[in-house]
Amino acid sequence: MGPDPSRISKLTPPPKAVDLLIIGTGAGGMAAALSGAVLGLDVLVVEKTHQIGGTTARSAGSVWLPNSRHSAPGSDTFEQAMDYLRNAVGNRLDEPIAAAFLRAAPEMVDLFEKNTSVKLRAYPYHPDYLAGLEGATLSGRVLEPMPFDGSVLGRNFAHIRPPLAEFTLFGKMMVDRVDIGHLMAASGRLSSFCHAIALFARYGVDRLRYKRGTRLVMGNALVGRLYHSLLARRVPVIRSTEVIALHQTEGRVSGAEMVWQGERVAVEARAGVVLATGGVSNHPKIRKSHMPDTLFATSLVVDSVTGDGLELAEDVGGHLGPHHESNGFWAPVSSRTRADGSIAVFPHFVLDRGKPGVLAVDPSGNRFVNEATTYHLFGLALMARHKQFPEGGCYLICDDAFMEKYGLGMIRPKRMGLSAALRDGYVVAGQTTSQLAEKINLPGEALAKSIDRHNGFAITGVDEDFAKGQDAYQRNLGDPAQRPNPCIGVVRQPPFYGLQIFPGDIGASVGLSTDACARVLDKNLEPVDGLYACGNDMASLMAGRYPGPGITLGPAMTFGFIAARHALALKRKCNLHVTDQG
């Protein structure tokens, strides 16, 4: 396990010189640092906030990594994955970058699994999002981190950015989709009851010593595993330190100037600097110029993601790449004001909108989207409706049976939290569809017709308007007990509920122009020597499309690995050159 990571002090000053300097502690930055450390580089990680993990810590933690050791033998190949990307991304696909990703991803997984605490597993069944395209797979490409015991971090556990409270139970206890399945079945199945009791018992013990549960899952587990691996290798991770400038020597990025404990500190980076600051989602000018004006004001991306990497790169010749089909990645979100006055934003990814018995309507009272489509495509449809109806709201509509079985947004199954949500207006209820329509300012007759038509599709199993439930990805979101279509159920048991939804952003697609080695490029598409980018600082190879879960974190970690490997090769080359001269 290595030395006790809790003994590494946060007050240790940055070293004066390292091989590789990493800026940012999301999945991409920590993967670059860990790769460098495993490969033998002297590494320093700098984080401007007091918390480790960035937006990764809030995420589901899924990583899209085709053809790894976790794919069933013969189920995936480089060629099959490349075909899928060609079909999913189209003529915007940068094939050299895509090829570099697909070749390096399995190597990165092997390096981590053999040498670090980063342990991944494949979802038993998790189709690619565009499951009907040639090259798509039904499982094996989407990996998740194994649950992680945060208590092994000692006092460093407090450094990890917590998940969104709305994604936890009791605001402090993390659960994943496996846990949710057991919790929902606890009253009818002994194994699920025992699983639930073990979860609550563990959480109760944790709260005697910690401010939250230490059993980490999803993005928190990925961050915890990466962070623990870095600390075990004695890699300095310096928090609350902002990099304010990059240094160049003879045209090559050779280090950085940063503010640590109120003092300016210069750090030499012999092999290079990796930008992994999270992208441009909250950069005020770029958000206004590159993101749709219909986007919800509060981003799911952490507040600290303000385009630092872009600004640092621009000062030494880097530049923002061209517009993508979508400059960000979207999801339907709902919002609520917390007790402390802050805004809670809940992304509707997989737990509710694809289940049978819910429909999405626009301000005219009509359905406008396949509710079980990918969250990115749902977000695009929402944006189009908000542009068409700027004064009205779009809603998810369900009945009481749906609310009891599945919950909706921040309301848990079994109606947990429903009373409070009704009191503060997060959801609105009506004993009839007409009463609900009046409360949420929708045309009552149109809403009733939309519900009746949707109910008819539940009987036939065929959504004649939007083809809901017609591919493997969508059916995986539904309820297999629902027949004939797992994604379509009737809406008829009062009271009826409406929840307003908005188009939200979960990360940037547009970013710094880079090459297949993760090197930042200048406006002449020449590498800025010594400067790399990964994660959302790097323009997404998906170019604004969203072909699968984890298509941000998977490439982020892989190009972090690629950057470290390239920096190592450069260091070896330079050392060999010096030796030859001697």
Write a concise keyword list for the protein shown above:
582 residues, alpha+beta, FAD/NAD(P)-binding domain, Flavocytochrome C3, Chain A, domain 1, 2 domains, eight-stranded mixed sheet, six-stranded antiparallel sheet, 15 helices, globular, disordered N terminus, disordered C terminus
What's a quick, concise take on this entry?
32% of the residues lie in helices and 19% in strands. With 582 residues, the chain is of the alpha+beta class. Strands 1, 2, 10, 11, 12, 13, 20 and 21 form an 8-stranded mixed β-sheet that branches.
Could you walk me through the main structural features you see in this protein, from its secondary elements to its overall organization?
With 582 residues, this protein is an alpha+beta fold. The chain folds into two domains: 5-147 and 217-277 and 509-578, 3-Layer(bba) Sandwich (FAD/NAD(P)-binding domain), CATH 3.50.50; 330-505, Flavocytochrome C3, Chain A, domain 1, CATH 3.90.700. Helix content is 32%, strand content 19%. The protein has helices at 27-39, 78-89, 95-115, 177-185, 190-206, 218-232, 284-290, 308-314, 375-388, 400-406, 418-424, 433-439, 444-460, 472-477, 553-581; strands spanning 17-23, 43-46, 63-64, 120-122, 142-145, 148-149, 168-169, 173-174, 215-216, 237-238, 241-249, 252-260, 263-275, 328-337, 343-347, 358-361, 394-399, 428-430, 496-508, 519-521, 527-533. Strands 1, 2, 10, 11, 12, 13, 20 and 21 form an eight-stranded mixed beta sheet that branches. Helix 3 packs across helix 15. The protein is globular and about 75 Å long. The two termini are 40 Å apart.
